[in-house]
Amino acid sequence: METILKLTDLTKKYGNKVVVDNLNIEIRKGEIFGLLGPNGAGKSTTMNMICNIIRPTLGHVEFMEKDFRKNSRELSKKLGYIPQDLAIHGNLKAWENVEMFTSLYGIKGAELKKRIDESLEYVGLLDRKNDYAKSFSGGMKRRLNIACAIGHHPDLLIFDEPTVGIDPQSRNFILERIKKSNKNGTTIIYTSHYMEEVEAICTRIAIMDNGKIIAIGTSEELKKLVVDDTSKISLEEVFLTLTGKKLRDV
Amino acid sequence: MIRYLIKNNFKLMARNWVNVFLLILCPLLVSAVLISAFSTLLAKYEKVDSFKAGFSIEQGSKWETAESIMIESADKAGIVLVKYQNADPEQTIRNEDLGGFVTISDTGYRIYRTEDEKVKGMTLEYFFSVFFEQAAAAPAGAASAAKIALSVEHPEFTKAVDSKDYYGIAFLLYFAWCGILVAWTLLSSEKKIGIGKRFIVSGLSETQVTFAKFIPTTLSVFLGIGIACILSSVLFGVHFGNALVIAGLLLAMIAAAIALGLAIHSLTDNILVTIISLFALVWVMGFFGGSFETYMFSSHSKTLKMLSPIYHCNRAVIEYSAAGSTKFIPSALLYCGGITVFCLLLCVGVNNLRRRGRA
CB of A101 within 8 Å of any CB in chain B? Predict the structure, then answer.
């Protein structure tokens, strides 16, 4: 399978502290790749380096066979990022929020209007397009947050804990949409603390701890690292076995 | 493509009712108070040429030794002082056609003026108040030993600049310099929701990000101050000159004010610190620039006045509005243009460094 994203020797240090340590991952086109890890494991830093938000101390990110940093203008148009924080303006209407972010990728005019409706419909908010974002519930805001990142039809979508603090219905809706996007050919990178979510949608999962990948594979492969009979163990138990039960206060 | 970003940033600011209060109601209220408070002081000022005034000094007074300095200083301020010892002030004014008369004693001085020569009388009053204030502050014996450095600018009264026109315009300009306040909503919202990450991911450069804030904020403030100008004209009868020229001057000034605010914000990365710093800076510029004490009568050093961008803007807009001409338009535009370019470059540079630092 074709590689869409390749992380080579990716390292991030803050002073003497190594946050991400020599990461080497290849993400294949069309997969849903889950990135798990306890707090402070280096997931967000890795995501930020992938998205070009922070610069690696060492190593590089190759996206669609090109160095991301050197070709960021061109490649950023093929990348969608859904941050954990709700990056939407409450005093703008739903369609205005989507317009604002979709237009950053050079889409304008009638095409922009079409994409706005398409994105809002995708997240089930088309009938609320003229409502202010501040009037939305937590789940609706999360969905709008997603709509803002998909209007430019990215090849790679990065979800940073998109289901935090929302009801099961909204969570289920978001997960269904992620699967739908993937079926339409979008590659997904997904981080979450909800193991059942990751297990349900991800084709491959990496577990990070202390800045390193300590395990990578399908859900079954990860379970086999701990026990032979995979039906007797959940992904969460695998995660706790591999990363330990010690509290991670960062 | 930042057109839509500019449009939506503009909507964000326009939808905040606090901005209406800050940009329209506040300057109108403050100027209404000041217009009323200074209506007598600035009444009917017209351009006055050099004029003659009389004076007498009580015999044996300590001010006798400062007589020659007083005459010399007055002469520089356009007042020819003539001594009439033991003369009746009122009669002397009438007989000698004087602009006013001053009797000086150790305990104080008294100004005599006529209704017909009110402006001259007020000029005389202003001169002596500054002269004695500075003479009293000088070291003992200085008055007789050396010249008193009198920083009285020769009052250049422009036609029909009354308190209504002066404060009606000066305070609109002062509030325009605080215009970054309207970007509070935008800047705090952007920081709160971490929108910067989305800009970086979308490949937006710091130059684009800066202009996406600068343009809508400038337009919002221009619109607000424009409405305030129209209202002050309708409500208080403030005279504005040629609308296009005044609009151009206002736009240049507001652009400079917003660029300055954004530059401070890029340096501090904190909206509250930005607003406090900008307020302090604008207050100082306004203090020397004639926002509080009229630039015609302020006793501040000319250098400090000339350093204040507000001084150039005030003189350009007020004189142009009131008298129809001013020599301060080029310097005001130069100042505003310089501030705008420098501050925007600083803003982009600092934000780029910050982005790299983060990176």
Answer: yes
